[in-house]
Amino acid sequence: MSGSDVLGGDAVRREARDKVTGRARYAAEADPPGRAYAWPVAAGIPRGRVTSIDSGPALALPGVLAVLTHENAPRLEPCDDATLAVLQDARVPHRGWYVALVVADTLENARAGAAAVGVSYEAEEHDVRLTGDRPDLYTPQEANGGYPGVRERGDVEGAFAAATVRVDATYTLTALHNHPMEPHASTAEWRDGRLTVHDSSQGGGIVREVLATMFGMDRHDITVVSEHVGGGFGSKGTPRPQVVLAAMAARHTARPVTLALPRRQLAAVVGHRAPTVHRVRIGAGPDGVITALEHDVVTHTSRVREFVEQAAVPARVMYTSPNSRTVHRVAALDVPSPSWMRAPGEASGMYALESAMDELAEATGIDPVELRMRNEPDVEPDSGRPFSSRGLVACLREGVRRFGWEGRDPRPGVRWEGDLLLGTGVAASTYPVLISPSRASAQADADGTYRIAVNATDLGTGARTVLAQIAADALGAPLESVRIDIGSTDLPAAPLAGGSAGTASWGWAVHKAASALAVRLTRLPGGVPGGGLTVTADTKAETSQEPPYARHAFGAVFAEVQVDAVTGEVRVRRLLGIYAAGRILNSRTARSQFIGGMTMGLGMALTEGSTMDPVFGDFAECDLALYHVPVSADVPVVQADWIEEDDPHLNPMGSKGIGEIGIVGTAAAIGNAVHHAVGARLREPPLTPDKVLAHLHRTRAASPGR
After folding, report:
1. Which of 373, 407, 411, 474 has the smallest count of CB within 10 Å of its CB?
2. At residue 475, does pLDDT exceed 70?
3. What mean pLDDT is predicted for residues 342-363?
4. d(CA 513, CA 535)
């Protein structure tokens, strides 16, 4: 594969064989000589302070080397993220906050030592309940991503009151958890004043900056390696406590230390998608064209660090809305700090918006696909900027053709197959195009091979492969001749893998470096010198310019479900996603990303949910036995494809991010299909059998003879 056919081809992942044979090494598998192991002790109260810690029983156990507490742990400098200020004082801001760390010669001994530590507390009253009518709700100045907390255009109240058709619905979503296959882990080693950390992170650069701040070091004396990362979905997008604790323990014991967080503790310390309460009001004319749109979101944040899910933002850009109000309101509670989870804002916000659009379609008697087409805006409603490209209508039309939507009976609760009710639904997807500055180097060697270096992170997305394709395309070289070095802060600086911005950001720098190298090579009279030829590129100038266009990816998801009228069980028969995401750089890895996101959307709709225990102040579903992610038996035939989209206003590759848009809209499409099947609107996912059964008797009553 070479030349013009390399970009867009279905090249196999470069690290695939290493992963299936075990040669790929992850953060907890780094094995420096003399390595010790750590196990954390989590607070057993929802709020208060530690009054005493008895380390004696733990230190008396075989192999235990040290017990770190707020009384003896290394002192740290403050940083912007207060969730990392571990073992610095006696406070307990929420249940699960780390109050001690045991270090031992083996993992088993560290775990036994942690169980032997005695902790006494002074408990305080706590508050973990989120409701939409709390008197202490406040409006933040900004939501995550720097979006304004409130945006308003026109006269929403007047337009809604005057509308011929009105929808006023509230949707309640539970907390969700990332649960990557590889738990958060770090191996830290101090040597000659330098710190080397192998960290399960979506971006080693920010980890290095934070460690340098907290330990009062020059960042050049720290190396962070994230060569292979077993998933993150946002939870590894910022440093987490394990990397700070591992570095502290390694300094305290003068030995390398590995800390892999126990699965049951992740819900309390690595972030979560916060629960949200959405009130959506839509006013429209009899033709279905929207005249008023309001999306009010209530969510929680912790008292440790503010994080506000930007769930009302998608309503600002999706549809025609001359009169619009989008608001975020927040309650600061004694809960673990929420954070990024795949498609933060869009996943939850679009569930509510696309469910409300389905309700509007029913109220107007207009086909749900047609309704969305009628509300296509000419420009982005919020900013007034033209779209660089907007392929939603094309996605809807292609989905209609591929799914067999034409001829669909719009009546809900009428399609029976034995004891099964059948239904179909549709929802739109969107995700913004985000790009950050990056550096990369391209080197040509005398043997005709090339080396690309960039501190990118491969979370299992195929980043190594796609970056090699970008370089080979720019160089006009065979793909096999390009080597990729990623995953270390010793390489050219690059942003984290997040916001579906990784490939666009790193790829731009790689393309720039490789293109410049190709030009240099044409000017060499005697060929590549023995030491090779290297070119370094930086895209800070290009990416710092404010784009004149609104840049988004779009998609349409179609779902068919069956609902067992006896048990209330919902099964998805088929899912189809059609996306408009610019130029697809690798058809194999892209389809995998889309399907992975759609599978997470299925989980959001049917199986995944986490409840806050009001008495104990923690999430009840804290492991994979209780928090039900979809497994192979839950996933039906899932098809993902895309339309050809040429957008010259993005980057040299013409690509948009694809890592997150797959989850957006999928849950709503399934929820809309369930409504079509049973004839009742369920507004609180996951749509588990107990919730469905409560509505099924109405459907049976309306079906004579059943």
Report:
1. 407
2. yes
3. 98
4. 6
Residue with tokens 């958060």: 184
| Nearest alpha-carbon partner for 109 in 44, 65, 53 | 65
Do 268 and 618 meet the contact criterion of CB atoms below 8 Å apart? yes
Q: Which phi and psi angles does 103 have, rounded to 5°?
A: -115, 130
pLDDT of residue 4: 54
Q: Where are the beta strands (DSSP E) in 454-531?
A: 482-485
CA distance 668 to 691: 16
Dist. CA 57–CA 7, nearest whole Å = 60
Supply the pTM of this predicted model: 0.97
**Which has the closest alpha carbon to 433: 378, 503, 382?**
503
- Is 71 labeled as catalytic in the residue annotation? no
Rounded mean pLDDT, 626-644: 94
DSSP 95-155: TT-EEEEEEESSHHHHHHHHHH-EEEEEE--------TT-TT-B--SEEGGGEESEEEES-
E runs forming strands in 182-289: 185-191, 194-199, 222-225, 257-260, 276-284
Which of the residues 309, 569, 660, 684 is marked catalytic? 660
Contact 663, 342 (CB under 8 A): yes
Query: Measured between alpha carbons, how far apart are the two ends of the chain, in Å?
Result: 60
Contact 235, 273 (CB under 8 A): no
For every residue of 157-184, DSSP letters joined together read HHHHHH-SEEEEEEEEE-BB----SSPP
Predicted confidence at residue 636, as pLDDT, reads 86
What CA–CA distance (Å, rounded) separates 84 from 619? Answer: 20
Residue type, 221: D
- Using the predicted structure, report yes or no on whether residue 704 has a pLDDT greater than 60: no
List, for residues 518-564, the tens digit of each pLDDT value. 999 999 888 899 889 999 999 999 999 899 999 999 999 999 999 99
Residue 301, strand partner residues:
332
Chain-centroid distance of CA 282 in Å reads 28
Residue 696: band (very low, low, confident or very high) from pLDDT cuts 50, 70, 90 = confident
Q: Residue 149 corresponds to which amino acid?
A: G
Q: Residue 5: pLDDT band by 50, 70, 90 thresholds?
A: confident
* Integer angstrom CA distances of residue 616 from 269, 272, 339, 405: 16, 18, 21, 48
CA–CA separation, 534 and 485 (whole Å): 14
Alpha-carbon gap, residue 401 to 392, rounded angstroms: 14
Q: Are 279 and 296 in contact (CB under 8 A)?
A: yes
Distance of alpha carbon 607 from alpha carbon 432, whole angstroms: 27
Q: Which residues of 595-663 form beta strands (DSSP E)?
A: 637-642
**Beta bridge pairs of residue 167:** 282
Q: What mean pLDDT, rounded, does the chain reach?
A: 96
AA identity, residue 395: C
| pLDDT (tens digit per residue) in 133-184 | 999 999 999 999 999 999 999 999 999 999 999 999 999 999 999 999 999 9
Using CA atoms in the order 498, 504, 506, 511, what is the torsion angle rounded to 10 degrees? 170
Cα atoms found within 13 Å of the Cα of residue 253, Cβ hemisphere only: 28
Using DSSP bridges, classify how beta strands 91-92 and 48-54 pair: parallel, antiparallel or unpaired: antiparallel
* pLDDT at position 701 over 80: no
Q: For residue 209, is it left (φ>0), alpha (ψ between -120 and 50) or beta?
A: alpha
Instruction: Give rounded-to-5 percent helix, strand, coil for the chain.
Output: 30, 25, 45
Give CA–CA dist 442/453, Å, rounded: 7
Res 525: pLDDT: 84
Q: Which of 58, 99, 202 is nearest to 500 (CA)?
A: 202
Question: Given the DSSP bridges, would you call strands 420-432 and 416-417 parallel, antiparallel or unpaired?
Answer: antiparallel
